[in-house]
């Protein structure tokens, strides 16, 4: 079994990856199917909202979608292109573009919700969500499971346009790179790229008992393999796989 580690090479991709990580946790808790899921859901929902409140996020996503729509037109004349698949992809992009354009502030619905606003404010205080601090939360938690799950899903659904756009941008970014075999000499590997990079992926077999630490710039990077047991640099020559996703123009 191999483990894949990712290193963003700019702030935009770093933010996308953080959103993806937290969104996955929110979705896992939103079903409220395990003990303690309600409070875990609220904590991760507020963490996600904070990430989505970046002023440049929506504009970055709209630029990404427009760039992909332009790329589709460049692909159309190619003889090997599947035009039916290309049309479906274009429709998906245009749908996301319309939804995102219609949502000026992704977290506005959550901000306007009095229950969530009070809860978000009190949860910054350690232990600040007891029934004496937030009686409305105590009441909400006492509702039946179906009612709570439907409400949790409804809050999350208000973020769908931006979350779907982030997911598609990352999917396309990961697909643009090509995997290559390399050898980390005495646990280290270094390389450079003439064209700037957006994302670096490193794949290492779990049986080696190591994980990579990556020092990277948009044109160069260094990988050091660290032994999981000792926490120190591993000195073996170990094969690794790399995938370089080039910077979007």
Automatic annotation (TrEMBL):
Keywords: Cell cycle, Cell division, Cytoplasm, Septation. Pfam families: ZapD. The keyword Cell cycle applies. The keyword Lipid biosynthesis does not apply. It is found in: Cytoplasm. InterPro entries: ZapD (IPR009777), ZapD_C (IPR027462), ZapD_sf (IPR036268). It comes from the Bacteria. Its main location: cytoplasm. One of its GO terms (biological process) is FtsZ-dependent cytokinesis. GO terms for cellular component: cell division site; cytoplasm. Interacts with FtsZ. Cell division factor that enhances FtsZ-ring assembly. Directly interacts with FtsZ and promotes bundling of FtsZ protofilaments, with a reduction in FtsZ GTPase activity. Belongs to the ZapD family. This is Cell division protein ZapD. The gene is zapD.
């Amino acid at each position: 079994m191999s483990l894949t580690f990712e290193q963003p090479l700019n702030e935009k991709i770093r933010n996308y990856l953080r959103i993806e990580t937290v969104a996955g946790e929110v979705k896992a808790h939103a079903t409220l199917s395990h003990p303690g899921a309600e409070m875990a859901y609220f904590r991760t929902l507020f963490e996600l909202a904070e990430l989505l409140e970046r002023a440049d996020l929506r504009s970055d996503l709209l630029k990404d979608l427009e760039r992909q729509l332009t790329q589709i037109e460049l692909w159309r004349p190619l003889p090997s292109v599947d035009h039916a698949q290309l049309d479906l992809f274009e429709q998906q992009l245009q749908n996301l573009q319309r939804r995102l354009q219609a949502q000026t502030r992704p977290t506005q619905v959550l901000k306007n919700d009095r229950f969530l606003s009070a809860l978000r404010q009190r949860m910054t205080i350690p232990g600040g969500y007891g029934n004496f601090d937030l009686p409305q939360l105590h009441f909400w938690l006492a509702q039946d499971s179906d009612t709570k799950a439907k409400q949790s899903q409804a809050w999350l659904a208000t973020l769908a346009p931006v979350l779907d756009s982030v997911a598609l941008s990352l999917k396309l970014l990961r697909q643009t790179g090509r995997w290559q075999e390399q050898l980390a000499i005495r646990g280290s590997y270094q390389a450079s790229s003439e064209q700037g990079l957006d994302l670096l992926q490193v794949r290492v077999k779990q049986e080696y008992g190591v994980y990579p630490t990556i020092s990277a710039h948009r044109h160069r990077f260094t990988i050091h393999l660290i032994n999981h047991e000792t926490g120190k640099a591993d000195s073996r020559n170990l094969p690794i796989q790399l995938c370089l996703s080039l910077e979007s123009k």
